């Protein structure tokens, strides 16, 4: 402040009416109307600080400090105190002030914390004390900070000293950690409270919250609390899980887990620091779920699926996602399906209802998949795989049963099925079909059944039939269905042929009381029916002749082969008790017509006269004489037909109906038929294998065994086993289509 | 009984032979004055030929030959003889086969030398695996019945023992055991392919079948054999 004089030149006067008053600290004032000059001269004597400036100032501050620490009113005003700080700082006493302040605070804090030693063992009370201690400290520091703000804003910033708040924190922290008795009591107290809350009691959440905040603000949160907290949590839930799992069922346990997880999330919201959340949830999920994933599945999964407990399964799914345990769940799902499915499929007794059961099974699993497992793609894949696995455990039979199931649905007399229901059922059946390996086996049976339906007029609806064909086509390609479609065409064509025949000259030769209908079948389309010769009655032979001559006149170069076992007739019969019309097979007709000329015919005679094959004849006679409708009488009585039996026209035959069906045996499929069909498919497969081998070898000339096998697996669409392929290879070697490569016996060469 | 010249032979002269044969009232073959060996085998042939069909030596003749050689009719040497002759039919040797065989065997003047020559041939064959293969293949053709492609199980077992036992005793023992038990073999027999692969099997695969590959190109019969063997071993 000492130094040069400062000269102000002022122009006062005629300006705004004397607002400016010029004053100088010394020297004359010249009342000049024109420019006035003000000269400020420095002080002659530099001002000096009062002697006890520091002590006085500090005394003020110290008094205030003490008052704050003792929670007593402060003598001086805030302004005064602030000024004191400022003044001291301006006088370069900031470091001293800081140090003195620090010392005082340290003393005080130490004192405070010491007061916590040897205190009550009562947890809650002690925690309250701690809280009080902390709250005081914060409040005091806040106040002191405002007072000593100037220090904070200047000295602290200029040096690298801690800010006052931080200084306070640091002292508190230091002294707190030096008193492990206190910290551990606080910690135990907190953990005890949390435990209590977990066991269902109410606790002082805000207290816990404040103390945890204290730890956090002091930077002591992890070591003083978090680590132990997580350990305690882990121990708590490990024990709880073990106990609960034993004593409750799986759904109850899972509910409990869900609740616990919710509670822990809330705990974070209520008082835990947010940084604990991730680890906490990890610990909980691990102890409650992850560690028991397999045990839970083993204990209750199968039961839940059995009982269709969709909601419980959904809960399980949502929990298992959290612990990355979906693979295990999926495995269990797959294993369940395979096990239950395999049981169903291998139970031979339940063959008749197998398809229905499997459809229901699939439906149930589909519901679970979509509602409980969120239509998870991998689960869906497992479902498919599992079905494919068990349905093919039993070769051939499932294919046959599915075909038969569809046959029953498409046949006349299938009750109570609306069009939509039928469509839906057929669609679901197609899904089963998709899983079956040997689709050619299915085709063989389907074809047989279709043939019967078409030839005996037993189709319920041609639309349904066509719809089924298009489903098969969409699934397997037109190659699969071309023959089936051919069968339909033949039936339609036959209708046209019959229409033309009836107006032809040939037809005029037929006696008016006989109606003839012929189905002309293209051999390649229809199932293979072995040619059979029976002794047809003259009338029938004549009819055949007439038709044949008509047909051959229209179609040169074709050969007609009659199949008596496929034919059926309506016979008009005169019984003493009334005229009847009987729906019978042509074979049955043969037998019955014999009784026009004779009565009391022995089995052997019938056998010879009719030319019917022995086993067939027995079945036929059984159907006429031993079933529900007996138009013939067998002696001796009995259910089985023997070669010594004799048969009579049953003159006492009575029946309420006029039209009687006795040809249901034609629609039935005997075990023998099934075997034959199966055998034929096997045979066919062998030809296909042979053809494929020759084709491949011809193209490649020389090929190793393993490559040949893998080519075959690729090309052939039915189930294959390497031994079967080997047998065909050996057969072809024998027949000299191939030879083993002389230089390497695991390779083959094509023999031209 | 024909007594041939003693082993310390007079390979050249056939005079005593002819004499002896006349002594026993047998017709001598057209004795060719040149080439001692050629007439030698001719006479041998005549000694054993079938009385009904003089172009062949029949089963009885062969049996007699065996007796003279002091060899069991089921001995491997008989098989070797048939192989050397290229005999097309078991139990019969034609004159042409006989003569071609002797060209292979070299000069023979007596049964002993025949037997010795056969033994030598057998021994040398056993040391050359390609020759073993030939013999093995011949055996299958030889055992085939009229118009059949396969040989019956009994013959197969016997022949397997005869041909391969010296080289693959352990395999042969188990294989024959297997063939004995496998009932379905009785119907169809053993095909040439299976037969030849049996030899290959013995050559490649260890007696404990540890290096057998299940998905290899072996005939199904051998797959089944290995399975059977493994089951037996586990059963132990």
Write the layout of secondary structure elements.
The complex is a heterodimer of chains A (752) and B (236).
Chain A: E1 6-10, E2 36-40, H1 53-70, H2 78-90, H3 94-114, H4 123-147, H5 149-153, H6 155-158, H7 164-177, H8 180-198, H9 205-217, H10 221-247, H11 250-270, H12 277-288, H13 293-306, H14 310-322, H15 326-346, H16 351-372, H17 377-391, H18 397-410, H19 419-435, H20 439-455, H21 462-476, H22 478-502, H23 505-508, H24 538-554, E3 568-575, E4 578-585, H25 586-597, E5 601-602, H26 603-610, H27 614-625, E6 632-635, E7 646-649, E8 659-661, H28 664-667, H29 671-700, E9 702-704, H30 705-715, H31 722-734, E10 738-741, E11 744-750
Parallel strand pairs in A: 4-8
Antiparallel strand pairs in A: 1-2, 3-4, 5-7, 6-7, 9-11, 10-11
Chain B: H1 15-23, H2 36-48, E1 56-57, H3 59-69, H4 76-85, E2 93-94, H5 95-105, H6 111-127, H7 129-143, H8 153-164, H9 169-181, H10 185-188, H11 192-204, H12 220-235
Antiparallel strand pairs in B: 1-2
Helix pairs in contact in B: 2-5, 4-5, 4-6, 7-8, 7-11, 8-9
């Amino acid at each position: 402040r000492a130094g040069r004089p400062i000269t102000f030149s002022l122009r006062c006067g005629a300006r705004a009416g004397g607002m400016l008053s010029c004053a100088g600290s010394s020297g004359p004032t010249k009342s000049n109307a024109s420019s006035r000059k003000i000269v400020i001269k420095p002080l002659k004597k530099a001002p000096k600080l009062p002697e006890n400036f520091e002590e006085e100032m500090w005394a003020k501050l110290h008094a205030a400090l003490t008052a704050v620490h003792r929670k007593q009113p402060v003598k001086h005003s805030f302004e005064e105190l602030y000024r004191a700080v400022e003044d001291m700082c301006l006088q370069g006493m900031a470091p001293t002030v800081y140090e003195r302040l620090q010392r005082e605070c340290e003393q005080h804090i130490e004192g405070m914390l010491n007061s916590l030693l040897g205190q009550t063992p009562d947890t809650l009370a002690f925690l309250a004390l701690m809280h009080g201690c902390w709250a005081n400290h914060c409040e005091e520091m806040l106040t002191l900070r405002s007072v000593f703000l100037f220090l904070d804003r200047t000295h602290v910033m200029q040096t690298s000293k801690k800010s006052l708040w931080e200084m306070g924190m640091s002292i508190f922290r230091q002294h707190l950690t030096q008193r492990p008795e206190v910290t551990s009591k606080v910690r135990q107290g907190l953990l005890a409270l949390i435990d209590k809350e977990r066991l269902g009691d109410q606790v002082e959440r805000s207290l816990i919250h404040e103390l945890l905040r204290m730890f956090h603000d002091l930077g002591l949160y992890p070591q003083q609390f978090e680590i132990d907290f997580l350990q305690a949590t882990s121990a708590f839930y490990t024990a709880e899980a073990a106990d609960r799992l034993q004593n409750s069922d799986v759904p109850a346990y899972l509910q409990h887990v869900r609740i616990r997880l919710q509670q822990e999330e809330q705990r974070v919201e209520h008082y835990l620091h947010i940084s604990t959340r991730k680890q906490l949830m990890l610990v909980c999920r691990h102890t409650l779920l992850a560690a028991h994933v397999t045990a839970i599945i083993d204990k209750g999964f199968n039961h839940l699926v059995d009982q269709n407990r969709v909601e419980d399964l959904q809960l399980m799914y949502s929990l298992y996602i959290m612990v990355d345990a979906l693979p295990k769940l999926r495995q269990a799902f797959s294993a369940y399906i395979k096990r239950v499915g395999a049981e169903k499929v291998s139970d031979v007794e339940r063959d008749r209802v197998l398809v229905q059961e499997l459809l229901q099974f699939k439906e149930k699993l589909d519901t679970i998949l979509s509602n409980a497992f969120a239509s998870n793609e991998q689960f869906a894949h497992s479902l498919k795989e599992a079905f494919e696995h068990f349905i093919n455990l039993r070769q051939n039979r499932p294919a046959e049963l599915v075909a038969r199931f569809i046959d029953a649905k498409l046949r006349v007399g299938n009750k109570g099925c609306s069009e939509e229901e039928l469509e839906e059922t057929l669609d679901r059946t197609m899904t089963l079909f998709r899983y079956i390996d040997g689709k050619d086996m299915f085709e063989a049976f389907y074809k047989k059944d279709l043939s019967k339906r078409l030839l005996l007029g037993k189709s319920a609806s041609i639309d349904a039939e066509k719809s089924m064909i298009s489903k098969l086509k969409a699934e397997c390609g037109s190659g699969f269905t071309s023959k089936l479609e051919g069968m339909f065409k033949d039936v339609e064509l036959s209708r046209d042929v019959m229409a033309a025949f009836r107006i032809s000259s040939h037809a005029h030769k037929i006696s008016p009381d006989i109606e003839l209908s012929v189905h002309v079948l293209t051999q390649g389309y229809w199932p293979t029916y072995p040619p059979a010769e029976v002794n047809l009655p003259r009338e029938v032979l004549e009819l055949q002749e007439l038709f044949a001559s008509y047909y051959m006149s229209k179609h040169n170069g074709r050969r007609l082969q009659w199949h008596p076992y496929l034919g059926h007739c309506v016979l008009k019969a005169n019984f003493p008790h009334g005229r009847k019309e009987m729906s019978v097979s042509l074979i049955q007709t043969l037998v019955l017509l014999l009784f026009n000329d004779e009565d009391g015919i022995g089995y052997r005679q019938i056998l010879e006269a009719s030319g019917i094959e022995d086993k067939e004849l027995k079945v036929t006679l059984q159907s006429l004489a031993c079933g529900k409708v007996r138009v013939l009488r067998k002696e001796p009585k009995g259910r089985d037909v023997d070669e010594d039996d004799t048969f009579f026209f049953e003159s006492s035959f009575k029946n309420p109906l006029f039209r009687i069906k006795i040809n249901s045996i034609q629609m039935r499929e005997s075990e023998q038929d099934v075997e034959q069909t199966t055998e034929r498919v096997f045979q066919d497969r062998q030809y296909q294998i042979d053809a494929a081998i020759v084709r491949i070898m011809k193209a490649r000339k020389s090929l190793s065994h393993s490559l040949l096998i893998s080519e075959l697996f690729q090309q052939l669409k039915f189930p294959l086993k390497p031994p079967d392929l080997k047998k065909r290879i050996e057969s072809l070697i024998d027949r000299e289509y191939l030879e083993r490569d002389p230089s390497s016996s695991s390779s083959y060469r094509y023999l031209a | 009984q024909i007594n041939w010249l003693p082993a310390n032979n007079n390979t050249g002269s056939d005079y005593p032979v002819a004499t002896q044969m006349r002594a026993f009232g047998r017709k001598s073959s057209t004795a060719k004055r040149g080439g001692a060996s050629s007439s030698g085998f001719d006479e041998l042939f005549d000694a054993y030929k079938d009385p009904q069909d003089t172009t062949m030596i029949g089963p009885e003749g062969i049996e007699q030959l065996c007796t003279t050689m002091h060899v069991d009719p089921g001995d491997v040497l008989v098989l070797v003889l048939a192989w050397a002759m290229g005999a097309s039919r078991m139990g019969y040797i034609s004159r042409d086969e006989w003569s071609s065989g002797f060209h292979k065997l070299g000069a023979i003047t007596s049964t002993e030398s025949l037997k010795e020559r056969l033994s030598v041939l057998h021994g040398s064959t056993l040391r050359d695996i390609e020759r073993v293969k030939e013999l093995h293949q011949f055996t299958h053709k030889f055992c085939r019945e009229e118009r059949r492609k396969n040989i019956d199980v009994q013959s197969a077992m016997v022949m397997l023992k005869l041909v391969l036992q010296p080289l693959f005793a352990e395999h042969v023992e188990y294989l024959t055991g297997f063939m004995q038990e496998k009932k379905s073999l009785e119907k169809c027999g053993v095909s040439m392919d299976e037969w030849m692969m049996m030899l290959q099997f013995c050559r490649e695969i260890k007696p404990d079948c540890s290096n057998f590959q299940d998905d290899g190109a072996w005939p199904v019969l051998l797959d089944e054999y290995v399975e059977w063997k493994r089951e037996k071993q586990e059963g132990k």
